[in-house]
Amino acid sequence: MSWDEFLYLFDKKYFPRSIRIAKEREFLEIRQGTMTVTEYEIQFTRLSMFASDLIATEEKERQRFIDGLNDHYRRYIVGNLMIDTYAKAVECAREHEQDYWAYKKSKDQTKIDTKTEQRNNGNMTKNSSGQHKNGKQRQTQYVNKQNSQAWKKQKGNGNNGNRKQGDTINTGAVVLVEPQPIPAEPIAFHGFCYNCRERGHKASDCPNEKVQDGGRWG
């Protein structure tokens, strides 16, 4: 039995026509997607066994592999005349994959560093603003205290200057004082004086010389 006859009988027994057609369709639709280049190459090789007539030549196999790569790898290979074999296409894709992930890692780290720096700067600005605010409050309190002390001192000096000897200092305390009697105003006298016979005062208050009884007016 020749090798070709063995393969024919093997495929006929273990890979019926329906399975081969399904695998061939899967090979035509294969794309790298989320797979790495190595994972994609393994899957490509496995499915290519069911579509050997589609990759009968080196160029067809190379082109089919390139068509399934992601865009950011395929654009470095398409049109490059130096990559003229399937093996070179696989190797080139792997090299660009390493460069891509190294660049992406560096870019992501730069973003992280930038965000960290911005967050630190924001905290420093916030702390500086808080310290400035606290300092301003303390300064305002100090000025208010100084103004209050100066006002009290000025008020005390003014009271001392206006106080006379014997005056008491008004401390604001309530002091109970006993009521003092109000003197009665004298009642005007409109009668005649028995001494000088003049109107407006009594004999006891007469300013004139006292007249003897015999000399009084009748």
TrEMBL record:
Any one Pfam family match given in the protein's UniProt record, by short name: zf-CCHC
Ranges for domain CCHC-type: 193-208
Record field: compositional bias (Basic and acidic residues): 107-118
Molecular functions per Gene Ontology: nucleic acid binding; zinc ion binding
Residue ranges, compositional bias (Polar residues): 119-151
PROSITE patterns (UniProt xref): ZF_CCHC
Keyword Protease in annotation: no
Region (Disordered) location: 107-169
UniProt keyword annotations, A-Z: Metal-binding, Zinc, Zinc-finger
PANTHER family assigned: DNA DAMAGE-INDUCIBLE PROTEIN 1-LIKE
Protein name: Zinc finger protein
Lineage per the UniProt record: Eukaryota, Viridiplantae, Streptophyta, Embryophyta, Tracheophyta
